[in-house]
């Protein structure tokens, strides 16, 4: 085939002429570069390759990372992982070979991406997020994504979302907003973990975490400063009481002093806030994780304390009384999982009191059916959204819509096993959740999310709206 025949067959002469004319009109200083980019944009992007690999998360446990290739570039994403997996959430696919990573390897999930998922998605338009996600769901054929693995599916879904944003030449958060039908962008209030406990830390504290919310900040940049300063003041408070060895940190970066009393931890945090001078601008949240220490119908607040288990049992009514007292004594505005995941009655009653935001985590597991039940029974008034509990970006968007339609708050949440992927920040802004929980203002995998929010706020400029005092209403 001659050069002219090739040009004619692919109508390249007309396309090149159009590109040259565009360069002339734009008075391009580098015509060759301009023409090259113009031609590249004129070609619709499709997925042409998928490559997955096994990497390590923040706990040193394997997870799935995916590179998704289009003619616009390579787009990478990695799946987060929780310390536990509930019966109502999508499941990670692990190898189970005790000789490799103690059974936690993900080579089977990686293989599923490189073979089955790749074959199904090659040729698809990356902007069609719903179709891409549905293709993987149909390919898996199980209720909880156990065939391909939620870790495999989610990493691909996230990478495809990035590729879709690139195809549309918009930032990731804007693409996510488009997918969700949103037209404005809101920077979330961060829930910084300051003290860790429960199954996230090696101390004797039963509850999982004590957090702060800088609701009085005017910008996210100021909120991050408040969080970091309070964190460092807390380090000084703990050092004065326990010495430097009391400042070891848990999985989410929160300090894990050897305390067993929730009140002692709250006193530490209150003292740290006082030292910053931000008293009226910072509120407190607690993540209880009560399922971890529920035995039958009782709650054992000494379950981590050697030789004391059973000495501090509380009934559901006792727990409600305790929460009431704490909310009166401290500026607590949000409590996560105050009761066991199946203790609907006490959760309903406590929510009805209107004392604070009641966040469903284990109660909901991001499961649409559980969310619908909780809405009907008013068992809580906020959703803790963990994207990997669903497995696709499309399902995450739908879960947020369910919560928003019920006038709930939404907290986009990290997992204990995180990577340096900053996707969480973009989805929080794109879906205007108003709240994000990404751990302490330290450790790279946590700061990746907070630093990305700084960049987004800077890019949006005057269009950036920090949720602030309206954190529950977005």
UniProtKB/TrEMBL annotation:
Cofactor binding: number and manner: Mg(2+) is required for catalysis and for stabilizing the dimer.
Family membership: Belongs to the enolase family.
Domain of life: Eukaryota
Pathway: Carbohydrate degradation; glycolysis; pyruvate from D-glyceraldehyde 3-phosphate: step 4/5
Gene3D superfamilies (alphabetical): Enolase-like C-terminal domain, Enolase-like, N-terminal domain
Domain Enolase N-terminal: 47-176
UniProt-listed Enzyme Commission number(s): 4.2.1.11
Cofactor requirement: Mg(2+)
Keyword Lyase tagged: yes
GO biological process, one term: glycolytic process
Binding site for Mg(2+): 302, 336, 361
List of residues binding substrate: 200, 209, 336, 361, 413-416, 437
Keywords associated with the record: Glycolysis, Lyase, Magnesium, Metal-binding
Domain Enolase C-terminal TIM barrel: 184-474
Organism classification: Eukaryota, Viridiplantae, Streptophyta, Embryophyta, Tracheophyta
Protein name according to UniProt: phosphopyruvate hydratase
Classification via InterPro entries: Enolase, Enolase-like_C_sf, Enolase-like_N, Enolase_C, Enolase_N
Annotated active site: 252 (proton donor), 386 (proton acceptor)
GO molecular function: phosphopyruvate hydratase activity
């Amino acid at each position: 085939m001659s050069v002219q025949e090739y040009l004619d067959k692919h109508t390249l002469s007309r396309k090149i002429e159009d590109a040259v004319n565009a360069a002339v009109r734009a008075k391009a200083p580098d015509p060759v570069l301009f023409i090259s980019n113009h031609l590249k944009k004129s070609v619709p992007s499709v997925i042409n390759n998928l490559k997955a690999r096994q990497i390590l998360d923040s706990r040193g446990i394997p997870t799935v990372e995916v590179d998704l290739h289009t003619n616009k570039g390579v787009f990478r994403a990695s799946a987060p992982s929780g310390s536990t997996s509930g019966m109502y959430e999508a499941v990670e696919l692990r190898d189970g070979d005790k000789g490799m990573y103690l059974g936690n390897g993900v080579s089977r999930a990686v293989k599923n991406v490189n073979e089955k998922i790749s074959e199904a998605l090659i040729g698809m338009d990356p902007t069609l997020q719903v179709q891409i996600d549905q293709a993987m769901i149909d390919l898996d054929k199980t209720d909880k994504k156990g065939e391909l693995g939620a870790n495999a599916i989610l990493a691909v879904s996230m990478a495809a979302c990035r590729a879709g944003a690139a195809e549309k030449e918009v930032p990731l958060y804007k693409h996510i907003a488009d997918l969700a039908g949103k037209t404005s962008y809101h920077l979330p209030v961060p829930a910084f973990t300051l003290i860790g406990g429960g199954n996230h830390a090696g101390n004797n504290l039963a509850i999982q975490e004590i957090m702060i919310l800088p609701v009085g900040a005017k910008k996210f940049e100021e909120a991050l400063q408040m969080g970091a300063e309070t964190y460092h003041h807390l380090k000084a408070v703990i050092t004065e009481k326990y010495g430097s060895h009391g400042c070891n940190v848990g999985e989410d970066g929160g300090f894990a002093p050897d305390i067993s009393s929730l009140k002692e931890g709250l006193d530490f945090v209150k003292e740290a806030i006082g030292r910053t001078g931000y008293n009226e601008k910072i509120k407190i949240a607690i993540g209880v994780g009560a399922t971890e220490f529920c035995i039958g119908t009782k709650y054992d607040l000494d379950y981590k304390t050697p030789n004391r288990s059973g000495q501090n049992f509380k009934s559901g009514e006792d727990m409600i009384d305790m929460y009431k007292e704490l909310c009166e004594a401290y500026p607590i505005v949000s409590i996560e999982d105050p009761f066991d995941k199946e203790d609907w009655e006490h959760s309903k009653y406590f929510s009805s009191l209107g004392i604070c935001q009641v966040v469903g985590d284990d109660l909901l597991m991001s499961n649409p059916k559980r969310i619908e039940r909780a809405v009907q029974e008013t068992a809580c008034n906020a959703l803790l959204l963990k994207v990997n509990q669903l497995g696709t970006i499309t399902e995450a968007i739908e879960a947020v819509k369910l919560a928003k339609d019920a006038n709930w708050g939404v907290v986009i949440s990290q997992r204990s096993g995180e990577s340096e992927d900053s996707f969480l920040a973009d989805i929080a802004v794109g879906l205007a959740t108003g709240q994000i929980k990404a751990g302490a203002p330290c450790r790279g995998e946590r700061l990746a999310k907070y630093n990305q929010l700084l960049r987004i706020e800077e890019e949006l400029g005057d269009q950036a709206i920090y949720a602030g005092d309206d954190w529950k209403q977005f």
